[in-house]
Amino acid sequence: MSARQRRWLVTAAALTMALLTARLGVWQLDRAAQKLAAQASIDERAQQPAIDRLAQLADRADTAPAQYHRLLRLSGRWSPAHTVYLDNRQMNGRAGFYVCTPLLLADGKRAAGATRLAAA
Questions:
Q1: Of all residues in the chain, what percent are helix, strand and coil, respectively (each to 5)?
Q2: Could you tell me the pTM of the whole model?
C-alpha cells in the first residue's frame, strides 16, 4: 500500500469516526429529551388528585396508561404471611433486598404490595 493510499484510508477512518461520534452525540441528546419529557409527565400526574377508590382504577389495558404515576390511596391490612424478599438488589449504591408485602383490601382482594430496600 502506497503512502497516498494509506493517507486516504486514515482520512476516511477519521472522518467515519467523527461522523459516528457526532451521531452518538445526537442520540444522547434525543435520549435526554425523552427522559425530560417522561419526568415532566410523572411530575404532572403526581400533582393530580389521588385515586382513593378501587372502582376508579382502570380495568382495561388501554385505559391504564392514563393512571400511571398517579397517587393511590387504599385501605386494608398488610399480609405479612405472604411477604416476599427479593435478595441481592441495589438502591442508591447500597446492597440489600426488596421486601414486598401484599395489602389485603376490605373486599378481600389483594393489592400490589409495598416495596422497600432493607440493608443487608
A1: 45, 30, 25
A2: 0.55
